[in-house]
Amino acid sequence: MRALVTGTALLSLVAGCASADSQVSSDARAALTTTTTSPATTTTTTPSGSTSAFRWPPCTEQSELESLAPRPIPAPGAPDEGVLAQIRRDGLVVGVDENTRNWAQRNPKTKELEGLEIDLVHNIADRLGAPRVVLHSVVTATKNKVVEDHKVDLTASSDSISCERKKTVAFSAEYYTAQHKLLVRNGSGITGKQDLGRRRVCVTEGSSSVDLLPRVNAKAIPYEVPTRTDCLVALQQGRADAYLGHDTFLWGMYDQDHRNTTVLPENLGDQHYGIAIAKDHPELVRAVNQVLADMCDDESLQRLADKWLAHAGDTRAEVPCSPEYLEGT
Amino acid sequence: MAGISAKSTRGGRERGLASVRVQGIPVRRWLRTTPGRLRTLSIALVFAAVAVGAIAWTTAQARHGATREVGVDATPQLGASEALYAALADADAAASTAYLEPGNDDPSVLRRYDRDISTAGQSFATVGREVGDRAEARRALATISKQLPVYTGLIEAARANNRQGFAVGAAYLRQASALMQDTVLPAATVLYEQSAQRLDDAYGRGTDNRDFVWLAVAGVATLALFVGACVYLARRTRRLLNVGVVAGFVLLAILFGWTVAQFATAQSSLVDAQRHGSDAVQTLSSARILLLRAYNDDNLALVARGNGADYVQDFDTVAKVLTATKSRQPGLLHTAGAIAGRTSDVDLAHRLVRQFASVQQAHDAVRGNDDAGSYGDAVKAATTTERQAVSTLDDTLQREIARTQAILAARAADARGGYTVMLVLLPLLALGAAVAVLAGLTPRIEEYR
């Protein structure tokens, strides 16, 4: 009998050792719920100290579009070269949008970036003496932040000059005047801004259209998306009835779905495009303004507009070429 | 000893019993007579035999149910929900790869997408059949069945636009991928977790020691009772052994020994199924799911131009879980390799880690090129070297998952074996013991008439 008891105890012991342990399994499952914390933003390059003392005059309604007067582009090694020395060594780092047909778009076939703004920044790089152009993709909500943080030397991304944006970045002279317009879905019954009441209107996050929409029609319901092409998707999927944006990219959207959409002719407000540059690099602002003035003189800017915009249904593809400069600069 | 247990069966019912008379004698006095004691003893032995038989039968029944659950229901469900998740994740990776390829229509990538979608459909049917009526799982099933057609529709819209050179195709692809990553895959994760939980629960029930202890106590007590009865009878009846009681003892000993042996082998098969089968399957599956997610992150970072920082961040997070380079704990790949390596190649863990190192290297090349503005080179690296490295590791993982799944199925089948016969014979053994006791004791009782 003692043997029996011992035997049973032994068996229980063996069984106890061999019982199921679900630790491995629950660890494996826990790994699947791994989530990402929001990315930390870091500054990659430090501003060059020599010119950071520059004081920008306050921005007013009159001076909103005014930039620094151009100066002849300093020669390599000149004492006022500033950030240009770095650009001539490492190349011009540029932020561009890549969702805007005819302005800056990744060609779905070739995977290359192409458009007016891509050609423009290559022109600027050549004339500044940069050995190459490094293109970084940005979206509306980040395009000025990357300039402010010195992740790029400049952005050319259908960026409207405004006193609000001038709080964080500087702008070149205007290189194009866009107009706020509406792209509507055919059959939506919208013929003008008066029809937008209680309709869903797509706007891009962080764009000037977000502030403009309530002024265009106070009863319109905003539908915000991160990138510009998302608005065309929203229109095609019936999640929005109209898209409020610059005609510059509305025509590009119209190109991609011209049977089902219409750009309404009504101009809801002018938008003046400038190239955003860090505020502590006034020498780069002056140099870029010099390039823009030169491109107006030799009509190469107009030729870019002809090349990229004329065919897109946009018949008013004329570059302004009447730059405004701050007095005494 | 027998006298004590006979008394305890009377319990507190003495008052009611006081007026009862047996063979003309008040019951309390009769119980102290030899025939009274023998009658009590025979009742106790029969009761003990039936009781231990019933306990053995119900625990065997419960364990058999648990091993069936492991082998017949939970294991196939785990396999199907893993296949569902992997097919969905791989479809998304294939869709984004197809978009990145110049020309957008590499037939092999398109075929991979089509195959993934059809695998997902098949696995979905299997999971749906097995999922039962838990609310969370039903909701997850409904989400997948509603959103998967939406997803494939968006992918087709993206493809159609890309073929015409419209950049809006990328927006459709991003929308599709967001739907997959934020809605469909989390639902598939719920199903996968439920299957894994179900398997764990079944293991728990199949290896639960409480019912084992109960059985052991009841078995040992019963056998002791029989031994005591033999000793008592030898003294009372001047016979060395009562054949009936000895036969009952032997039958019960067989019943008890058989049950214990069956439980022990089944339990060791179940533990083997878990240690060498499902632990490996689950860690490998999690690693594979995370690998596919990491590769898709890299593709989407290239597709989502300018908005891809979150994807790059996610790759780093996932890579950290897979390799755990910074903390001292081994990463998921090493753990999975070590567990699966128990039954094959001891070097498996290192091989997995090495293969991921080439994925990481390719990823660094992709990011390096993209950050330097060479998008074309970045895409080339992503669709050639990185894709190659990912598929090498993915192939290894898939092979190991299939191999360990086979081990799991085989061990689970082993654990199930033997129960059917046992469940039929256990009641017969217990009844046989009871009959033998009565047959052995009734003539002895009647000798006192």
Characterise this structure.
- By secondary structure, chain A is an alpha/beta fold.
- Chain A is built from 11 helices and 14 strands.
- Helix content of chain A is 34%, strand content 17%.
- In chain A, strands 8, 9, 10, 11, 12 and 13 form a 6-stranded mixed β-sheet that branches. A 5-stranded mixed β-sheet of chain A has the order 5-1-6-14-7.
- In chain A, helix 4 (116-128) crosses helix 10 (282-297).
- Chain B has helices at 2-10, 14-17, 27-32, 34-100, 107-130, 135-163, 168-206, 209-237, 243-303, 309-323, 332-341, 348-371, 375-416, 419-446; strands at residues 21-22, 25-26.
- The longest helix of chain B is centred in the first third of the chain and has 67 residues, at 34-100.
- Chain B starts with a helix and ends with a helix.
- In chain B, 50% of the residues are buried.
- Mean pLDDT of chain B is 86; it is low at 1-12.
- Classes of the chains: A alpha/beta (329), B mainly alpha (449).
- Chains A and B meet through helix 1, helix 2, strand 5, helix 8 and helix 9 of A and helix 6, helix 7, helix 8, helix 9 and helix 10 of B.
